[in-house]
Amino acid sequence: MHNKILRTLLWMMGAVSLVAFSISSVGASTLDDIIKRGTIRVGVGNDVPPFGSIDEKGNLQGYDIDFAHMIAKDLGVKAKLFPTTGINRVPYLLTNKVDLIINIFGANPQRAQSVSFSIPYAPFYIGVFGPEKLPVKSAEDTKGYKVGVSRGTTMDLTFTAMAPKGTKIIRYEDDATSLQAYLTGQVDMIATGNLLAVEYSKKRPGKFVLKFLLRISPGHIGVRRHEADLLQWVNTAIHYHKLNGDLNKLSLKWFGEPLPVLPTF
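Above: the chain sequence. Below: its structure as tokens.
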């Protein structure tokens, strides 16, 4: 009888400890940490205008930069911005250097194994761009040509899967370097985003003509997996700013056109 009572007491103590541990684990969330800290750490781009770039005073500017500050204001905290590239966005997120990635992040099944994606917040499509007179209309036509891409980006992954044998894919560490390689003739074409091409075509007419579309790839915000509370909050913020017209204002400011209808995911 004594042993039975003892076992019951031990079981009850174990159950209470488990409940206490569970409550403690649930209470310790990244969203709570951000609010308590007073800052939200955001990985952004600094070489992908008009999403993110450096102005003449050395300050970050762009659609993504404005939205990062907007959601920081929603939380009542300050935004601490960290420049990231296509290749280091995920490592920065997974090693807890940043809380979010707002850097025209394209969602795909491979990335979703380690990163959770928000609903889309920005319009974007990717393609292969080249000189107007270059006779290329499809991936198959790139055989024998050199195409520059930023390593590890959606452009890299998508074009690599499509390119025929004989296409020379030259990978660079970031968009600025791949763009410079194209402008200086080191590659014949560049796989990049439509808005980046539009931005630079103003300075170089006929140089950034869409040769063929790779895929529609709207921008998502990336958070670490298993951070459901933060992801839900981010989705709520995006939805709110779509409905009240804030994202449309940012689109008019940075893209020169109204925000198009974005996919639901």
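The chain has a mean pLDDT of 89.
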